[in-house]
Amino acid sequence: MRSFRPALVAALACSVLYGAAQNAVPPIAPDERVDVTGDGVADMLITTVIDLTPDTEQGLYGWYRRVVRTMPGTSILNWSTLSTQRWYTVPDSASLDTAELAARIHFKQLSWTDAKKPTEFKVLERPFGPGIGPDRDGWYGGGEHYDGVLLLRSVSMKGTSIATFTFDLPFPLGGVVLTTKEAMRVPPGFGERHEPLPNKPPKDVLLDFGHEEQAPQVVIPAGLAPDESIDLTSDDIPDLMITSENSPFHATTPMGTYHRGLRMTPEAALLMEKQPDGQFAPFRLKYDEELTPDRLNTDLQLDRFRWARPPEWPAFIYVLEQRYGAIRTPDEEIGWLPSADVMEGLFVFRAAQYGRPVVGAFEIEYETPGGQVGVRMQGLAEEGDVLNVR
């Protein structure tokens, strides 16, 4: 209760000043500690905080907010790639796959929040003050939505556990329920990153013009990382995959080249352009260009353009590569290197957005020698409209 007593006193004082104490302090639920993993140790705290943000014109003194916080030793899993920054969610019908989780963490696609600092979820809010009548009084969504099944890790004296859970919010009563979907014990150190961070480049004081220092790059290990699906059209259907390929040399010792790049899913197609040698390569739209329906249809009819859609035409866009084994040269830079085809211009794709045909453009972003690869949308239009890029 210590966390909200000072705020409660301030709210009472505020109510006296306004002469409406009966409306200023709605009932407050006591704190609740929840053991999500089932190991006998509380993982989450459900509490109430007071936000004194008065609005005298509306008779508002502030808000009560229902908040869920992680307890010390608890962390939440989230996506942490160039293209995806959100909470990691597990499909409702899926079981926990520790091998897949370990691989995604190893290849830096997923990361845990800091178990020493509380992670906060603002789930509900309720206004209070003399101007809050029965029609406005009640608990509402806190503006932050936490749909899906989330995953947490709990480290305590009893060991390490992981669990999937959901938020259940019975409106408008103000209750918060954490429902465990699946929980299991895992080995100590599960999901931790043991490799050191890369060193920051030396700072040249003579060339320092007051720019902020850049954070060290995330270093992606060599190997075949799990696919990362990207929803380009914001309809919850993946249109593109960031994927990896291995081009091995047949020799007595392992050697070859790992490639990182992109491939469309069967739900989308990549626009290809005929090259002087008769082969097709991904079409590049310049940043100051626009793609009109007349040009697109004409070049498709003249076979200068073609749509490449998997699985019939699984066109792969090579972005980065890293050689391994004896094929590496002594003077070769360590880490990931850009492919021979420089990633300039925008790539054009065709897909559906809630059943509506659309065309769009995206750019590829990457980091070397770290190895991160991502995409950024630059334009989307209904099929038949002009595609303009930002």
Brief summary:
With 390 residues, the chain is mainly β. The protein contains 4 helices and 26 strands.
Structure description:
This protein has 390 residues and is mainly β. It folds into 2 domains: 5-186, no CATH class; 218-388, no CATH class. The chain is 9% helix and 39% strand. The chain has 4 helices and 26 strands. The strands form 5 sheets. Strands 4, 5, 6, 7, 10, 11 and 12 form a 7-stranded antiparallel sheet that branches. Strands 16, 17, 18, 20, 23, 24 and 25 form a 7-stranded antiparallel sheet that branches. A hairpin with a 2-residue loop joins strand 10 and strand 11. The longest helix is centred in the N-terminal third of the chain and has 14 residues, at 5-18. The model is unreliable at 1-24 and 196-207 (pLDDT under 50).
SSE blueprint:
Layout: H1 5-18, H2 21-24, E1 32-34, E2 44-51, E3 62-70, E4 74-80, E5 85-87, E6 89-90, H3 98-106, E7 110-112, E8 120-128, E9 140-141, E10 149-156, E11 159-168, E12 177-186, E13 228-230, E14 240-248, E15 256-264, E16 269-274, E17 280-282, E18 284-285, E19 290-291, H4 293-301, E20 305-308, E21 316-324, E22 337-338, E23 346-353, E24 356-366, E25 373-382, E26 387-388
Antiparallel strand pairs: 1-2, 2-3, 3-8, 4-5, 4-7, 4-10, 6-10, 8-9, 10-11, 11-12, 13-14, 14-15, 15-21, 16-17, 16-20, 16-23, 18-23, 19-26, 21-22, 23-24, 24-25
